Amino acid sequence: xxxxxxxxxxxxxxxxxxxxxxxxxxxxxxxxxxxxxxxxxxxxxxxxxxxxxxxxxxxxxxxxxxxxxxxxxxxxxxxxxxxxxxxxxxxxxxxxxxxxxxxxxxxxxxxxxxxxxxxxxxxxxxxxxxxxxxxxxxxxxxxxxxxxxxxxxxxxxxxxxxxxxxxxxxxxxxxxxxxxxxxxxxxxxxxxxxxxxxxxxxxxxxxxxxxxxxxxxxxxxxxxxxxxxxxxxxxxxxxxxxxxxxxxxxxxxxxxxxxxxxxxxxxxxxxxxxxxxxxxxxxxxxxxxxxxxxxxxxxxxxxxxxxxxxxxxxxxxxxxxxxxxxxxxxxxxxxxxxxxxxxxxxxxxxxxxxxxxxxxxxxxxxxxxxxxxxxxxxxxxxxxxxxxxxxxxxxxxxxxxxxxxxxxxxxxxxxxx
Length: 417
What we know:
Blueprint: H1 2-35, H2 39-46, H3 50-67, E1 78-85, E2 95-106, H4 110-177, H5 182-217, H6 239-244, H7 250-271, E3 276-286, E4 289-297, H8 307-371, H9 377-411
Antiparallel strand pairs: 1-2, 2-3, 3-4
Helix pairs in contact: 2-4, 3-4, 4-5, 4-7, 4-9, 7-8, 8-9
């Protein structure tokens, strides 16, 4: 009985160890996958980036103004008092004192106008914050695409360097066999040195652009993994749909909210033309007599009827209205520009895409032919140069198309994957 029971205990212990090991590994892999900077992750981090937090904090200032923008009056009650001695003819000196309370009462809906203006400015601040966050997200996505481009460019540089090493080794073997001259070895070595340097430069550019992305997102890690395709999937809506939705763009919403805030400020300044009366309550003690008085203090708005505030606020409405028209017109033109660029880059990429497989096949055949002694090094280098130019042009076309698609999708408020 001891033998089977000991084996059973051993199997149970081994199962527990395996389960714990898997449980430990699964979260680690999930965390590693989550840490990769994909486009959804970049968007999430960009909305919490330092520049986005600054915009959110500025909007919080406007929200605080709304919370504290509804006092009964801007002026505080005033309590005043005076006391002294009254000298009578009979020689008596009774105490004489006066206490006055002045309580302000605003007219013309000044309090409501202040509250409305504060709420309008809050909406304008929220719209400005959203527009700023959109700009930060766009900059982060474009930088993310640039890093992906750099990764692919570094990969191409590594392939070129590997091919140069193959050609150098083949030239050395053929020189030893006496089928080529020493110049082939020297030329192949020069190509290898140049391709090695180009690979180092490509990796350095990738690391620098990655640091820019990390700084933009406010990350502590200096070398996070980058994931995702260079060209985002999906297609933007038709141009007609984009133009119909131009009012929903963040910059247009921001300009419209600024116009509403300017109008609310103008209403506040107009309400400020009304005077703030003061209710006066006075108590007087004079010669052992108690005297109570009640009255009003009414300012006469002749010298200053808030003319400056009214004039400037009315002018601000004109400026804000013109800015709305300019922003709306500019947004429509920008959408047309982005859509034209998107179509142009898409056609360019479609034209170059079939040449990619042919280029890789051609350089492989040429290199293999040189290793077998079927062609000379000059022919291989000529094919290799054409292939490199084609693959570089394809990569640049992919980056241009990716940028155009990212810009138009962000401008349209569409989600990116």
